[in-house]
Amino acid sequence: MKVTKTQALENRARIVETASTLFRERGYDGVSVADLMAAAGFTHGGFYKHFASKADLMAEAAASGFAKSAANLAGNDAASFVQEYLSRPHRDALGHGCTFAALSGDAARQPESIKQAFADGIENQLAILAREEDSLSESAKREARAKRIDTLAHVVGALVLSRACPDDSPLADEILEVCRTAVLGQLDRKVEGPNGG
Protein backbone atom coordinates (compact mmCIF):
# COMPACT_ATOMS: atom_id res chain seq x y z
CA MET A 1 0.00 0.00 0.00
CA LYS A 2 1.45 3.36 -1.07
CA VAL A 3 1.86 5.99 1.64
CA THR A 4 0.66 9.51 0.79
CA LYS A 5 2.94 12.52 1.24
CA THR A 6 0.78 13.69 4.12
CA GLN A 7 1.00 10.32 5.83
CA ALA A 8 4.76 10.20 5.26
CA LEU A 9 5.12 13.62 6.94
CA GLU A 10 2.95 12.48 9.84
CA ASN A 11 5.03 9.30 10.20
CA ARG A 12 8.24 11.33 10.19
CA ALA A 13 6.85 13.69 12.84
CA ARG A 14 5.89 10.70 15.00
CA ILE A 15 9.41 9.28 14.69
CA VAL A 16 10.96 12.64 15.63
CA GLU A 17 8.63 13.04 18.62
CA THR A 18 9.31 9.49 19.81
CA ALA A 19 13.05 10.00 19.34
CA SER A 20 12.98 13.28 21.25
CA THR A 21 11.40 11.56 24.24
CA LEU A 22 13.54 8.41 24.13
CA PHE A 23 16.80 10.29 23.65
CA ARG A 24 16.03 12.49 26.68
CA GLU A 25 15.17 9.42 28.75
CA ARG A 26 18.07 7.16 27.70
CA GLY A 27 20.69 9.31 25.97
CA TYR A 28 21.75 9.06 22.35
CA ASP A 29 23.69 5.84 22.78
CA GLY A 30 20.92 4.24 24.83
CA VAL A 31 18.46 4.14 21.93
CA SER A 32 18.97 1.94 18.88
CA VAL A 33 17.26 2.64 15.59
CA ALA A 34 15.33 -0.64 15.96
CA ASP A 35 14.10 0.30 19.45
CA LEU A 36 13.16 3.77 18.30
CA MET A 37 11.20 2.60 15.28
CA ALA A 38 9.40 -0.06 17.33
CA ALA A 39 8.41 2.55 19.92
CA ALA A 40 7.08 4.79 17.11
CA GLY A 41 5.11 1.85 15.68
CA PHE A 42 7.19 1.20 12.57
CA THR A 43 9.61 -1.40 11.28
CA HIS A 44 13.36 -0.89 11.48
CA GLY A 45 13.70 -0.87 7.70
CA GLY A 46 11.46 2.17 7.33
CA PHE A 47 13.90 4.42 9.15
CA TYR A 48 16.03 5.16 6.10
CA LYS A 49 13.03 6.29 4.09
CA HIS A 50 12.88 9.26 6.46
CA PHE A 51 16.48 9.90 7.60
CA ALA A 52 19.94 9.47 6.08
CA SER A 53 21.41 8.54 9.47
CA LYS A 54 20.72 8.35 13.18
CA ALA A 55 22.74 11.57 13.57
CA ASP A 56 20.29 13.37 11.26
CA LEU A 57 17.41 12.23 13.45
CA MET A 58 19.31 13.21 16.60
CA ALA A 59 19.77 16.77 15.31
CA GLU A 60 16.14 17.04 14.22
CA ALA A 61 14.86 15.60 17.52
CA ALA A 62 17.00 18.09 19.45
CA ALA A 63 15.67 20.98 17.36
CA SER A 64 12.13 19.75 17.98
CA GLY A 65 12.74 19.63 21.73
CA PHE A 66 14.21 23.14 21.69
CA ALA A 67 11.22 24.46 19.72
CA LYS A 68 8.82 23.04 22.30
CA SER A 69 10.84 24.54 25.14
CA ALA A 70 10.85 27.90 23.35
CA ALA A 71 7.08 27.77 22.91
CA ASN A 72 6.64 27.03 26.62
CA LEU A 73 9.03 29.81 27.57
CA ALA A 74 7.51 32.42 25.26
CA GLY A 75 4.84 33.50 27.74
CA ASN A 76 7.04 33.52 30.86
CA ASP A 77 9.37 36.07 32.34
CA ALA A 78 12.81 35.00 33.56
CA ALA A 79 11.69 34.45 37.17
CA SER A 80 8.77 32.25 36.12
CA PHE A 81 11.09 30.29 33.85
CA VAL A 82 13.51 29.64 36.74
CA GLN A 83 10.71 28.64 39.13
CA GLU A 84 9.30 26.12 36.66
CA TYR A 85 12.67 24.88 35.42
CA LEU A 86 14.10 24.18 38.87
CA SER A 87 10.98 22.39 40.11
CA ARG A 88 10.64 18.78 41.18
CA PRO A 89 8.08 17.98 38.43
CA HIS A 90 10.50 19.18 35.74
CA ARG A 91 13.39 17.31 37.35
CA ASP A 92 11.37 14.09 37.34
CA ALA A 93 10.06 14.47 33.76
CA LEU A 94 13.20 13.16 32.08
CA GLY A 95 11.58 12.23 28.76
CA HIS A 96 9.54 15.42 28.56
CA GLY A 97 11.90 17.88 30.25
CA CYS A 98 14.70 20.06 29.01
CA THR A 99 16.79 18.73 26.13
CA PHE A 100 19.80 20.75 27.32
CA ALA A 101 19.84 19.09 30.74
CA ALA A 102 19.15 15.63 29.35
CA LEU A 103 21.55 15.59 26.41
CA SER A 104 24.24 18.30 26.52
CA GLY A 105 26.82 15.84 27.85
CA ASP A 106 25.96 13.41 25.05
CA ALA A 107 25.93 16.18 22.43
CA ALA A 108 29.51 17.12 23.28
CA ARG A 109 30.63 13.74 21.87
CA GLN A 110 28.48 13.84 18.73
CA PRO A 111 29.00 15.12 15.16
CA GLU A 112 29.07 18.84 14.41
CA SER A 113 25.47 18.80 13.13
CA ILE A 114 24.23 17.89 16.61
CA LYS A 115 26.52 20.40 18.30
CA GLN A 116 25.19 23.04 15.89
CA ALA A 117 21.59 22.10 16.76
CA PHE A 118 22.46 22.65 20.43
CA ALA A 119 24.21 25.97 19.72
CA ASP A 120 21.17 27.14 17.75
CA GLY A 121 18.87 26.01 20.57
CA ILE A 122 20.93 27.91 23.15
CA GLU A 123 20.91 31.07 21.03
CA ASN A 124 17.16 30.81 20.57
CA GLN A 125 16.60 30.33 24.30
CA LEU A 126 18.80 33.35 25.05
CA ALA A 127 16.89 35.44 22.50
CA ILE A 128 13.55 34.56 24.09
CA LEU A 129 14.86 35.51 27.52
CA ALA A 130 16.11 38.82 26.03
CA ARG A 131 12.64 40.35 25.71
CA GLU A 132 12.36 43.91 26.97
CA GLU A 133 16.04 44.72 26.37
CA ASP A 134 15.62 46.87 23.24
CA SER A 135 15.96 50.14 25.15
CA LEU A 136 19.29 49.21 26.77
CA SER A 137 22.62 50.66 25.66
CA GLU A 138 25.00 48.35 23.77
CA SER A 139 27.19 47.78 26.84
CA ALA A 140 24.10 47.05 28.96
CA LYS A 141 22.89 44.59 26.29
CA ARG A 142 26.23 42.75 26.47
CA GLU A 143 25.98 42.64 30.25
CA ALA A 144 22.37 41.42 30.04
CA ARG A 145 23.40 38.67 27.60
CA ALA A 146 26.16 37.56 29.96
CA LYS A 147 23.57 37.42 32.75
CA ARG A 148 21.21 35.31 30.59
CA ILE A 149 24.04 32.90 29.73
CA ASP A 150 24.88 32.63 33.43
CA THR A 151 21.23 32.00 34.30
CA LEU A 152 20.81 29.33 31.63
CA ALA A 153 24.07 27.59 32.56
CA HIS A 154 23.19 27.75 36.25
CA VAL A 155 19.71 26.24 35.91
CA VAL A 156 20.77 23.54 33.44
CA GLY A 157 23.70 22.58 35.66
CA ALA A 158 21.48 22.50 38.74
CA LEU A 159 18.98 20.24 37.00
CA VAL A 160 21.74 17.90 35.79
CA LEU A 161 23.18 17.61 39.32
CA SER A 162 19.77 17.06 40.87
CA ARG A 163 18.94 14.34 38.33
CA ALA A 164 22.27 12.65 39.04
CA CYS A 165 21.13 12.03 42.63
CA PRO A 166 18.77 9.18 43.59
CA ASP A 167 15.12 10.19 43.18
CA ASP A 168 14.42 9.97 46.91
CA SER A 169 17.62 11.78 47.89
CA PRO A 170 17.19 14.94 49.98
CA LEU A 171 20.20 16.30 48.09
CA ALA A 172 18.24 16.24 44.81
CA ASP A 173 15.69 18.67 46.27
CA GLU A 174 18.33 20.71 48.10
CA ILE A 175 20.22 21.39 44.85
CA LEU A 176 17.03 22.62 43.19
CA GLU A 177 16.11 24.83 46.14
CA VAL A 178 19.56 26.35 46.69
CA CYS A 179 20.10 27.10 43.00
CA ARG A 180 16.55 28.39 42.47
CA THR A 181 17.03 30.83 45.36
CA ALA A 182 20.45 31.94 44.08
CA VAL A 183 19.32 32.48 40.49
CA LEU A 184 16.15 34.32 41.51
CA GLY A 185 18.29 36.54 43.75
CA GLN A 186 20.57 37.34 40.82
CA LEU A 187 17.59 38.15 38.61
CA ASP A 188 16.41 40.71 41.16
CA ARG A 189 19.60 42.68 40.56
CA LYS A 190 18.66 44.53 37.39
CA VAL A 191 21.29 45.10 34.70
CA GLU A 192 21.88 48.83 34.44
CA GLY A 193 23.39 50.87 31.65
CA PRO A 194 25.94 53.65 32.10
CA ASN A 195 23.19 56.14 33.02
CA GLY A 196 21.47 53.87 35.52
CA GLY A 197 19.16 52.10 33.07
Automatic annotation (TrEMBL):
| Top-level division of the source organism's lineage | Bacteria
Q: Which residues form the DNA-binding region? A: 32-51
**InterPro entries from the UniProt entry:** Homeodomain-like_sf (IPR009057), HTH-type_TetR-like_transc_reg (IPR050109), HTH_TetR (IPR001647), Tet_transcr_reg_TetR-rel_C_sf (IPR036271)
One Pfam annotation reads TetR_N
Listed A to Z, the keywords are: DNA-binding
Molecular function GO labels: DNA-binding transcription factor activity; transcription cis-regulatory region binding
HTH tetR-type domain ranges (all copies):
9-69
Q: Which PANTHER family match?
A: BLR6905 PROTEIN, HTH-TYPE TRANSCRIPTIONAL REGULATOR RUTR
This protein is called: TetR family transcriptional regulator
